[in-house]
Each structure stands twice: as structure tokens, then as C-alpha cells.
Write a structure and sequence with these properties.
The complex is a heteropentamer, with 1 copy of chain A (about 290 residues), 2 copies of chain B (about 270 residues), 1 copy of chain C (about 260 residues) and 1 copy of chain D (about 250 residues). With about 290 residues, chain A is an alpha/beta fold. Helices cover about 45% and strands about 20% of the residues of chain A. The model of chain A has no long low-confidence stretch (mean pLDDT about 85). The chains are: A alpha/beta (about 290), B alpha/beta (about 270), C mainly alpha (about 260), D mainly alpha (about 250). The complex binds adenosine-5'-triphosphate (2 copies) and magnesium ion (2 copies). The site of one magnesium ion has 2 residues of chain E, from helix 2.
């Protein structure tokens, strides 16, 4: 049995895999698994296709765009889904001097997203549309997470779409305030990240995938219930200080991926003109 | 058959010239540089070419070397047409600094010609030493050209040319950039070397005294396009001597004649 | 005379066209998956689509703007610093080693620091591009100053010219071929850095277009962007050599 | 000499002290900046756990491998184009159009085709290094004293010997300058690839430090890259002076 | 007081020399290049300096120009010590190609000297035209040096020196790199110009004929370290003429004398 490389960005979203390694759950199921940190989420599909990693954790948006672009990927297991807790972590953080009372106040503002057409951005646009605001009126730019605080402070942007722990850090530094908790208002429970592989690899390694799923089912319980253990593992993987990790609850692990959840994303992205072809959900998820 | 007959016809009796220009015309960049030049150089002859700057002296020499091909007419060497440079013809360039390989020592520079001639490497060192001694650079085998004075560099270039064992030596203002003393010393050296090897020489210079001092025959070129304007036989006795030869009435007469010729072409 | 130059140009373009045909052949035969390597036909279609919907124009303009401002800033600063270091021994001792330390720093690594200091602004892009593009110009200027014919300084001395006059009448003009060559190198560097900047800092421009296309796995769009970058580089370098040709008319080799 | 190096240190020291004072005075809180004292501590820490040394090894390996491949390709093309005027004129548009393509724009394609790791990074570095070597070696060959080529013709040296005995030694000093420039480019490109994509070496170290909210460590990596580049440049400059300081070069045929 | 008395003492009766070397010694790089050189050049005199290569001719000239300061001894100009180059002293460098600003036209190069002299820009064009006419370059004001032949460039450098309106003209092998014809033409031109302006000239050359042809007095330097080895007064009538002057017995006598001197120093 060859070693399986799992590639994720340095977040808590792949906590179920990280914990499964640290707790020896994969080993128990006869799998040898190793984590590979990947800087940018949108590189994950390419990494899978080039066999640098066998399983990766792309966000829903990255996965669907890759599938739309013709990359033959298939989702093999669920990782994290939106939940009331994780939705509460997501905010549009506004710098001092700007007040946002209602969604249309964002019109004409410069808003930094950690990736254009990426997860937070798509959600935010969806929220604007639901609130009857034309997203074209908002000026979006890209701002990576670590530079957000500095840019907000310098007034380079009016707001950033961000998440914990950055919200708390920026609030404590007195750089501004939360302008909108748009994820809470959307109140979705659709997947944030799931595990994906190339169809070719998945077809050849059906048995391994079965074991992989079983192991995740066990470790997800730990992630969702044992904060201590989960935080320790996450801190080890992301190299973030343990206090920072502990301060924010990890996103909810949900090892089983349902077809309808992807359908919602496809609809949202289609209305935002991010997809050019019609995607068939049944082919995107491995049975 | 026909061409052989013609060759015999054009040089009846006299020895066949080693280098022969036959109505040679050369155009470069649309301009006619040399026009209808006919000229024969006998084996062992020392021919000097003078002329105003830009009249085509260098070009004529390069034709003789096979570095240029005539636009019309023929250049023959030993009766064979010149298609490309030959190893039997050595050229001494005026700019010795540029014609030596700066990354090779004196010995290495001489060696280049031996390598090109396919001499086995075991035999080279002895031959190199001999050649360097001939040109008066016996102790300098390990020096780089940049460590040598101008006169030494020019002697080194001559050594490399001698390594080719040329039948013909072409020299393009070889002493132009040297000071008067070094120059006169080298003139005498060249005369000695040539007398010893019996090589044919075409020597280009703009120094009229030098041409008369060295040559058996002096040709003055006319410019635009280059063609022969004057031809003088030099009947000064050999060996020649720097001061006395230059003070002979025959020398002064030839010099005045050449001087008037050049003066006339400059207007 | 001029005709042959044009003929060679045409032949040169024909060779380039030959390479494009080869590319088309590889794409048609599907030697490489079309997901990664679209044929020139698809790239061209994407280029046309990009221009007709107007998006590509603004991206191109963005890149050109970053490149031009960054390059100008690099040129001015590079010549000034180069002239100071080139003509003053003291500055050479005190400042030059620090510059040698800064020079190998990858611009990509400077970007986070630059963002922290200057924010996500045009000024930041300008600084970053100038930081990377300044070196060829500065080094060329220093070299140009060092290589001024000493005889010319002696001419200046015997004419009892002032220090300022020496710099402006002797050293700068004498170094100008070196400086222009440095500026030419910097032009390419500025283009590359504009793209790097747009990719890593998310500024609007062709780099961002390439990045978004890559993220959305639209390889035809990606190649359209890359082609446009190549064309930009070619056109600017031709423009630069024309300018050089005019400015250096006094050089024998330019004629 | 030592006096001069002390003077050379004066400016950076002054800047560092000023920066430290400014950071302390304004109680700077940033995810991208840190006071010099903390940077030094972080650098020290990275040395004690050897992580920075492993990263340096990875980066330098890719950079040098890419540099070697790029130099060989660039040199071969540059010499060929430099020797043949026809080839030079024919390839002009192609070369000038490909040269300005930033190698970083090709990253997505390289990633899909080659995956993470040394291979992809080496290819990108090589692509970036080919051009300066090609351009400069072409110029070097074209500026070879025509007299030397005529000497080669007059001696009737065969083509292979002409390249080996005349062209390469004559162009070597300028080719080495191209190599020195390319070495700097190789380091920069390698780190850039690592920052953008490749989870290897010093660039990945920067990215990880940044994402781990450790600006001190990130800047420590940055300083270390500067030191490596500085040392590399000095090394190559010394080598250049050793090899080509005199007009005499190493390619002596004896 | 004491020094003034001494100065009066050393030149009794004769006009005060314009340039005076007083036991001048110069060391460069730890080597003594010039030793104990004493020399006076009278206003309007044409002094030629000859000597073997490396004997210190250029160095002596640079001392006279103020480009070097003596290690010991004094160089005076018009009775004043020379601390730095002066605008009244113009130097014509041998390497004319290097001494001209390649990015300025002929007019621009002459203009440089006028600018340095503070002439208002309105007056310059007329003066430039006049100077270019003087040196025989009337139609070439708009040409760059790279578009001119060697002889034209050297004439341009002379024009720039004349623009300084110098009391003294220092010339360092100014015709060394020119061909014989151009050279003889320029020799005559310089004689005419100097006669017209009345300037003092120090002229360095390694061509003995040239030194005798041009000078009122010829000095031969001995090398290692440089000092005066021979001093000859040239009593040939002026104006001089290329062929006839050179054939006069006095000319030949002086040449032989100089030649023997140089020959002796070379060993
Ligand atoms: N490659 C070339 N293309 C066009 N014209 C040329 C070329 N080479 C030389 N000429 C021209 O041919 C003429 C003769 O040149 P050549 O070098 O033979 O003169 P020269 O007699 O050797 O002069 P000098 O004494 O100055 O060396 C000149 O007018 C020159 O401009
Ligand atoms: N800056 C210097 N430092 C040390 N030695 C020098 C320097 N300049 C010249 N020399 C030496 O001084 C001596 C005289 O040099 P100078 O240039 O005056 O000779 P010259 O008579 O003009 O020779 P030439 O006829 O070759 O021009 C030479 O041996 C030279 O090597
Ligand atoms: Mg010639
Ligand atoms: Mg001299």
C-alpha cells in the first residue's frame, strides 16, 4: 500500500485528516497518510492532477471551477461544512471611519477579498444579491489574510472579507469593527472544503478510499467534540501559536458529502457567471 | 587544355608568377573598391604597395589572401584559383594586438598554427622554441601578449606566420603603430628572415621610405577605384643599411618620385 | 539597403509563425492535454473575446501603467544614485555594500513588507517594481561613470571646468550608452515585476488576468494573457531600440 | 580594508537602530513587520532547529540545477545565433517575443504538467536563466574581434576547433558575466516559485511564517536570503577576478 | 625676498622663460620617472622633445601642463608656480579619439572650451566658425568625431585648444597615429598657426625627422630616470618646406646626430 499524500492549506479545514494521522486512526485502518501544506487553495487541483498529492482539500469554488475547466476531478469525502459556529467566524470587517448600516452601504466601497472568485468572495456576492444590492457597484480587490491588518490600518481598503482569528485580532488592535456577518445571515450548511482526487486515481484505489472514509468518520467525532486534541493537531500542522488556534473553534467536520450541497454551490456560481458549462453533480461525487 | 595553353601564352619565358591578379574587380556594399587590377608576383619577390589612405591597399592584400573573392577576374596562386584562404599563405595584420589570442601565451599562440597544421603535440615544443628564437623572443615563451610590448607582439605574430611555413607572406602595414626605432629594427629583421626562407612577400605600407627601403619593386595605387598608378623597380644593393641606404641618391630619387605621385593623388 | 532590413524582418516573423504552426500541430494532435495546452486558435479566440468584451483592454492598460511608472521611477532613482556613487568615493564606501545586500532580495519576498509600509496602493506597486528594476540602471550608471575616458577628465581639468559641469557635460553623456542599455534591460524587468506584483498583490492587470484564468482553469484565457505579455515585451523593446538609435546617433556603431 | 568594511556597516546599522526605535516607540502591531531585535532572535531560532539550513539547501539545489541547465541551453543557442548572422536575423522576433514572458506566468502550466517539487522549480528557473545567458553570450560572440576569426580562417581551423579554440575562450569573460547575472536571477526566481506555489525551501518558509502570523520569522528568512545573495555575488566576483583578472585566461591550449 | 633674488639671478639679461623646470624630480608608484630636470622655454619658442619609448617624454609634458605635481623642485609658468592646470595652457593629446567628446559635434567640441571660458552663448557660433576655418574644417561643424577621419579629428582637437587662446601649446605625439601624407600636411599647418598666434610650443614626438623639421630646439631625453641627454639648436631657415628642408645637409647632420644618440640610449 503506497503512501497517500493529502494536500491542504494551513487552516483547520482538513482537521479530520490531521487528527486521523495524529491519533493513528489511518494506521488502524491500514492506511499510510501524510499531510502536505499547500500555500494557495487554488493550486490544489493542479497538484492532484500532477500526482504531487493524491487527495487534496479544495474549497467548493475551486473544485467546481476546476471541474468546469475540464480537469477530471472527483470528490471522495467531506471535510468541513458551514455551521452556525463557523458562519459566525466569517465577517466583513470595516475600517475605522466607515459605517455600514445596511448591505447597500457597501456600494462604492473598496472591499478586500482573500481571493477573487474564491469562497468568501462568492458568499459575499451571494449575500449582496439576496439583499438586492448589485455587486457590480462594489470594488473588489485581492488581499491576503496576513496583510489584512496592515492594509485596513493604512486605509488601503474600506473593508475586508475575513474570518477568525483575524477578526478578533483586528478588533483588539482597534482597527475597525465588524460591518456585516453575512455568512450568519445566509445561514447555509453547505460544504466549505471536501476531499477530492483525480478520477483515475479514485477508480484504481476504491478500497483505499473506503478505508479513508471510515477513518475520517472516526476522527470527525474527535474534531467536533474534543477541542483540546483537535487544537493541538491543528497548531502542529499550521504552525500557528496554540493560543491563537484555541481561541477559534474549528469548522465543523462532516465526513459525508451530499449531492444537494454541491448543487447549491453550482447554482450560486452559475448566477455569478463563474461557470461556463453545465456540471453534472452525480459525476462529481464518488459513490 | 585551352586554359593551360593560355597560361603558357601570357607568361612566355619568365618564371610563372606565384600570385597573379587577372583583371580583378571587387565590389563591396555596391561600391567598386578595386577595378581591373592585373599583377604578377614572382616567387621570392619582395613587393611593396603604397598609396593614399583608403585607396584599397588592404583590400588588395585580402584578395591575395583569399579573404575576399573577386567580383570579376581571377586571383591565382601557383596557377590554382584562390577560393579560400590557404595555409601556404600567411598574413601579418597591422593590428597585432587584435590578431593574437590574449588567453594564450606566446608559445600557445605559435602553437595554434602548428595545431592547425596537424603537427603532433609531442613535436610542437621544440618547433615553438625554435620559431621564438628566430624572431628574437627566446626567453618569452610563457608570457601573455598583454605582458609584451608592441614590437614584441608584432614579432610574435610573425613567428606564428612563420610556423605556417608559408610560401607567401602578406603584411599589412605591420609596423604602422610602432615607434621609429623599433620599426627600423623590425624592418631589418624581416629582411633577414625573408632572405633566409626565400618566401614571396607583399608588403603594404603608407611610409614611402619604408617601401623603398624594403622592396624589390614598389607599386603605388590610385584611389576610387583602386588601380595601379605607378610601378618602380628598386635597384638598391642588398643587404641594406638604415642610414647609408637612405642617404643614397637613388633612394632620394625614388622617394621624390613616389612623393610626387602620392601628392598628385591626394588632390 | 533598407529593403534587405525589411526582408529580414519579414523572414523573422515567418519563422515565428512557423513556431506557432508547430504549436498548433502539437495541440491538434493532442500530444499534451488540451486542458493545459490550448492551440493558438483557441488562444486567439480568447484574445479576441477578451478585447471585444473590453476586459482585456483595461488589464493591458493596468500592466502598462505599472510598468511605465515603475520603470520611470527606477530610471530616475537609478541614474541619480548611480551618478552619486559613481562620482564619489565616500558614497561608494558607505553605501555600495548595503545596495549589494538589497540587490539579491527577491521582489516577491519584498511585497508583504511593502504592503505593510505602503498599503495596497499604486505607490506600493511603484516601489516594488522600481526596487527590482533599478539595479540594471544603477549598475550601468556606476559602470558608465567609472569607464569615462580619463583623458576627458584631463581635458576638463585643463579647461578648469567646475565639478557640476564635469558631471553634466562629461560624465553623464559619456555614460549614456551604458545607461540606455541598463534602461533597456530594466524595461523587461519592469514588465516581469508588474506581473509578479499583480499576481502576488492582486493588483489589476494582465498578471491578475493570468492568475484568475489559471485559478478558473481556463487555459485559453491564460495563454491569451501570456501572448499579450510577449507582444508587450516585444513592442516596448523595439520602441526602446528606436529611441536608443536616435539618442546615440553620435556613436559610430549606431550608423 | 577593515576600516572600509566598518564604514560599509554604518548605514545598515543606522537604519536598523532607527527602525527598532520607531517600532518600539509606536508600539507597532503588524502581521508583516517586526523589530530587528526579534528578527535576529527568529533567525537564531531557525538556525538552532536547522529548519532554515534545510530550506537553504532545497532552494540552492533547485536554483543551481536550473541555473546549470539554463546556462547550457542559453550558451548553446547564444553561440549558434552569435556565429550565424542568418540564424540571428531569423530568430530575432521569436527570441524577443518569448524573452519578456515572465516565467512566473507559466507557473500554473508547469504545476499541472510537472507537479510540486524540484522538477517544476528547476524547469522554471532554467527557463528564466536561458534568456540572459542567450542574449549576453550572443553579444559576446558577435563582439569577438573579427581579426581572430580571420586568423582562424587563414589557418583553416575546422569548425569544431574554431568554436573550441577561438570562440569560447574569446567570449568566456563576458559569458561569465552572464553567468553571474543569471545566478542572481536563479536565486530570485527559485524563491519566487516557492512563494507562489512550491512547498519547498526558503520561499515556502516565508509563506509558512507569514501564514503562521510570525512576521519576525518571515523577515528573518528575508534577511537570510539577502545574505545568501550577497555571499553568492562576492564568491562569483572573486572567481571572476581570479579567472579573468588578467587578459590571460584559463583556456590555454598548451 | 630670497626666492625673488634667486630668480633674477638665474636668468640675467635674457627674457624670462615662460615655462621653467627647476631641478624637477617626479616619482610615481615609488619609481623615479624624472630626475633633476631643469629647463626653460622662452615665449614663442618651438621646443621639440624626443627620446626612446618610456623615457619620460609624456611625463615631462604633463608636468608642464600641471597634470602632475613634482615630487621635488618647481615648475613655473610666467614666474608663477604651477599648482593645477591653467586655461592659458592647452594640451593636444596624442589619442585624439579619446580626447574629443564623441557625443558632441565638431562645433560642440570647440564650444566646450568657449563655455569653460565663460563666453556668452550668443558670441560662440561666430567664434566656432572662425576656429574651424582656421584649422581647415569649415564645412564640418555638424559632424560627429566618429564621422571624421583621424587627421580631421586631430585638427578638431587643435581647434579646441586654440579656442582656449593659450599662451602655451603642449603637444604629445599629436601625429603619431596618422599616415605620412596627412602628417606632413598637419606639420605645415601647425607651423603656420603657431607663427600666426605667437604661442610657445612644446612638442613631443618619437619621429626624429619631425622634431628637426618643426623645432627651434630639440631635446633628447635619457631614460631611467628621465633627464636631458642632448640639446640641439636647429638653424634651418623658416618657412620650411617638406622636401627641400629635409634634403639640406644641416638637416641630415642633425638627424644623424640624434639618431646616434637614440641608438646609444636604447642599448
Ligand atoms: N567591407 C567594406 N564595405 C564597403 N566598403 C569598404 C569595405 N572595406 C573597405 N571599404 C572601402 O574600400 C576603400 C579601400 O579600403 P582599404 O581598407 O583597402 O584602404 P587602404 O588603402 O588599406 O587604406 P588605409 O591606408 O587607411 O588602411 C575605402 O574607401 C573603404 O571605405
Ligand atoms: N602613473 C604611473 N605610475 C607609474 N609609472 C608610470 C606612470 N606613468 C608612467 N610611468 C612610467 O614612467 C616612464 C615614462 O613614461 P612616459 O609615458 O612619460 O614615457 P614616454 O617617453 O612618453 O614613452 P612613449 O614614447 O612610449 O609614449 C615609463 O617607464 C612608464 O612605465
Ligand atoms: Mg589598410
Ligand atoms: Mg608618451
Amino acid at each position: 500500500q503506497a503512501k497517500i499524500q493529502v494536500g491542504c492549506t494551513a487552516t483547520s479545514d482538513c482537521a479530520s485528516a490531521i487528527v486521523a494521522i495524529d491519533e493513528g486512526i489511518f494506521k488502524k485502518h491500514g492506511l499510510e497518510v501524510e499531510m502536505t501544506p499547500i500555500g494557495i487553495n487554488s493550486n490544489i487541483p493542479a497538484a492532484i492532477l500532477s500526482n504531487s498529492i493524491q487527495i487534496g482539500g479544495p474549497t467548493s469554488t475551486v473544485f467546481l471551477q476546476a471541474a468546469d475547466g475540464g480537469l477530471d476531478l472527483v470528490a471522495v469525502a467531506g471535510a468541513t461544512v458551514m455551521s452556525p459556529v463557523s458562519n459566525g467566524n466569517i465577517t466583513a470587517f470595516v475600517r475605522n471611519g466607515i459605517t455600514i448600516k445596511e448591505p447597500k452601504d457597501f456600494v462604492g466601497k473598496k472591499v478586500g477579498a482573500p481571493g477573487l472568485n474564491a469562497f468568501l468572495h462568492v458568499l459575499f456576492v451571494k449575500w449582496l444579491v439576496e439583499k438586492g444590492v448589485d455587486p457590480k457597484g462594489v470594488n473588489f480587490v485581492e488581499v491576503t489574510f496576513p496583510t489584512m491588518a496592515d492594509i485596513i490600518k493604512s486605509g488601503g481598503v474600506d473593508a475586508v472579507l475575513t474570518a477568525e482569528p483575524f477578526v478578533t485580532r483586528m478588533t483588539n488592535a482597534g482597527l475597525g469593527s465588524v460591518g456585516a456577518r453575512y455568512a450568519v445571515e445566509l445561514a447555509r450548511t453547505d460544504p466549505i472544503i471536501f476531499y477530492a482526487a483525480s478520477r483515475e486515481w479514485a477508480d484504481k484505489n476504491a478500497a483505499a478510499i473506503k478505508k479513508f472514509r471510515d477513518a475520517l468518520a472516526e476522527s470527525a467525532v474527535i474534531v467536533n467534540n474534543d477541542r483540546e486534541k483537535a487544537s493541538a493537531s491543528i497548531a502542529k500542522f499550521t504552525k500557528q501559536p496554540i493560543e491563537v488556534v484555541k481561541a477559534t473553534p474549528p469548522n465543523r467536520s462532516e465526513p459525508v458529502l451530499k449531492l444537494e450541497q454541491l448543487a447549491w454551490w453550482i447554482e450560486v456560481m452559475s448566477t455569478q457567471k463563474m461557470l461556463q458549462s453545465k456540471l453534472d453533480t452525480s459525476k462529481l461525487v464518488l459513490k | 587544355m585551352a586554359s593551360a595553353a593560355k597560361r603558357l601564352e601570357t607568361v612566355p619565358g619568365t618564371p610563372a608568377p606565384q600570385i597573379r591578379f587577372d583583371e580583378v574587380t571587387l565590389q563591396l556594399g555596391g561600391k567598386t573598391i578595386i577595378e581591373n587590377l592585373s599583377l604578377g608576383v614572382q616567387p621570392g619577390e619582395f613587393l611593396c604597395i603604397v598609396g593614399a589612405s583608403g585607396c584599397g591597399k588592404t583590400t588588395a592584400l585580402r584578395l591575395a589572401a583569399g579573404l575576399y573573392q573577386p567580383t570579376s577576374g581571377k586571383v591565382n596562386f601557383d596557377g590554382q584559383p584562390m577560393r579560400e584562404p590557404r595555409r601556404e599563405i600567411a598574413i601579418v595584420f597591422q593590428d597585432y594586438g587584435k590578431a593574437l589570442l590574449p588567453w594564450r601565451t606566446a608559445a600557445g599562440n605559435v602553437s595554434l598554427a602548428l595545431e592547425a597544421g596537424g603537427m603532433p603535440s609531442a613535436e610542437r615544443p621544440a618547433r615553438i622554441e625554435e620559431l621564438l628564437r628566430t624572431v628574437g623572443l627566446p626567453g618569452h615563451a610563457g608570457k601573455y601578449p598583454s605582458e609584451m610590448s608592441g614590437g614584441m607582439q608584432q614579432r610574435l605574430q610573425i613567428a606564428r606566420c612563420l610556423a605556417q611555413e608559408p610560401k607567401t607572406l602578406l603584411m599589412d602595414e605591420p609596423f604602422g603603430a610602432l615607434d621609429a626605432m623599433t620599426r627600423q629594427g623590425l624592418q631589418d629583421e624581416v629582411l633577414t628572415l625573408v632572405a633566409a626562407s626565400g618566401a614571396t612577400v607583399i608588403f603594404v605600407t603608407h611610409d614611402l621610405d619604408e617601401a623603398i627601403y624594403l622592396g624589390d619593386r614598389v607599386i603605388g595605387l590610385l584611389p576610387h577605384p583602386g588601380r595601379i598608378g605607378i610601378e618602380l623597380s628598386v635597384n638598391l644593393p642588398r643587404p641594406r643599411e638604415q642610414l647609408s641606404t637612405r642617404e643614397q641618391p637613388e633612394f632620394l630619387r625614388l622617394r621624390r618620385q613616389l612623393f610626387d605621385f602620392i601628392k598628385a593623388t591626394e588632390q | 539597403m533598407n529593403r534587405t532590413v525589411i526582408l529580414w524582418r519579414v523572414a523573422s516573423f515567418a519563422v515565428a509563425a512557423g513556431f506557432i504552426a508547430l504549436w498548433q500541430l502539437i495541440a491538434n494532435l493532442k500530444l499534451v492535454s488540451p486542458v493545459f495546452l490550448p492551440g493558438p486558435d483557441r488562444a486567439w479566440a480568447s484574445l479576441v473575446r477578451g478585447f471585444s468584451t473590453g476586459d482585456l483592454w483595461s488589464k493591458l492598460a493596468g500592466t502598462l501603467e505599472h510598468m511605465a511608472y515603475g520603470w520611470l521611477a527606477a530610471s530616475i532613482a537609478g541614474i541619480a544614485i548611480g551618478a552619486i556613487i559613481g562620482s564619489s568615493r565616500t558614497m561608494r564606501i558607505y553605501v555600495a555594500p548595503s545596495l549589494e545586500f538589497l540587490r539579491p532580495l527577491p521582489v516577491s519576498a519584498i511585497i508583504p513588507v511593502a504592503i505593510a509600509m505602503l498599503g495596497l496602493t499604486q505607490a506600493m506597486a511603484l516601489f516594488v517594481i522600481a526596487f527590482g528594476a533599478i539595479w540594471p540602471i544603477m549598475l550601468a550608471t556606476i559602470h558608465g561613470f567609472a569607464a569615462v575616458e580619463p583623458r576627458l577628465y584631463e581635458v576638463a581639468r585643463s579647461l578648469q571646468m567646475s565639478r557640476l559641469a564635469v558631471i553634466f557635460k562629461i560624465a553623464l553623456p559619456s555614460a549614456s550608452p551604458d545607461i540606455l542599455a541598463g534602461m533597456r534591460l530594466s524595461l523587461t524587468v519592469a514588465l516581469i515585476l508588474s506581473v509578479v506584483c499583480e499576481i502576488l498583490a492582486g493588483l489589476d492587470g494582465l498578471g491578475h488576468w493570468v492568475l484568475l484564468s489559471a485559478r478558473a482553469f481556463r487555459s485559453a484565457d491564460l495563454f491569451a494573457g501570456v501572448i499579450l505579455l510577449g507582444v508587450t515585451g516585444y513592442v516596448t523593446s523595439v520602441a526602446m531600440s528606436l529611441a536608443e538609435h536616435r539618442l546615440l546617433a553620435w556613436q559610430a556603431s549606431q550608423r | 580594508m577593515t576600516g572600509n568594511s566598518a564604514k560599509a556597516l554604518a548605514l545598515p546599522l543606522a537604519v536598523l537602530v532607527a527602525f527598532e526605535v520607531w517600532v518600539r516607540a509606536t508600539h507597532l502591531q503588524s502581521d508583516s513587520l517586526a523589530p530587528p531585535s526579534e528578527i535576529v532572535m527568529a533567525l537564531f531560532g531557525a538556525f538552532t532547529d536547522l529548519s532554515i539550513l534545510a530550506a537553504t539547501r532545497d532552494t540552492l539545489f533547485s536554483a543551481f540545477a536550473g541555473l546549470a541547465i539554463g546556462t547550457v541551453i542559453g550558451l548553446a543557442l547564444g553561440i549558434a545565433i552569435g556565429i550565424s548572422d542568418t540564424l540571428n536575423r531569423l530568430m530575432e522576433v521569436t527570441v524577443e517575443a518569448i524573452r519578456p514572458i515572465p516565467s512566473i506566468a507559466l507557473l500554473p502550466i508547469a504545476l499541472i504538467a510537472l507537479g510540486f517539487g524540484y522538477r517544476m522549480e528547476i524547469v522554471i528557473v532554467a527557463f528564466a536563466c536561458v534568456w540572459p545567458v542567450l542574449i549576453l553570450s550572443r553579444a559576446a560572440v558577435r563582439s569577438i574581434e573579427p581579426r581572430l576569426m580571420e586568423v582562424a580562417r587563414a589557418l583553416r581551423l575546422p569548425p569544431a576547433q574554431r568554436v573550441w579554440k577561438i570562440i569560447i575562450p574569446a567570449a568566456l569573460p563576458r559569458i561569465f558575466v552572464a553567468f553571474r547575472l543569471s545566478a542572481g536571477i536563479a536565486l530570485i526566481v527559485a524563491v519566487t516559485v516557492e512563494i507562489a506555489i512550491n512547498p519547498l525551501g526558503l520561499g515556502a518558509g516565508i509563506m509558512l511564517a507569514q501564514q503562521a502570523l510570525r512576521p519576525d520569522l518571515m523577515l528573518a528568512y528575508l534577511v537570510w536570503i539577502g545574505i545568501i545573495g550577497y555571499a553568492l555575488n562576492i564568491l562569483l566576483t572573486v572567481a571572476q577576478q581570479r579567472l579573468f583578472g588578467r587578459a590571460a585566461l584559463s583556456g590555454d591550449g598548451q
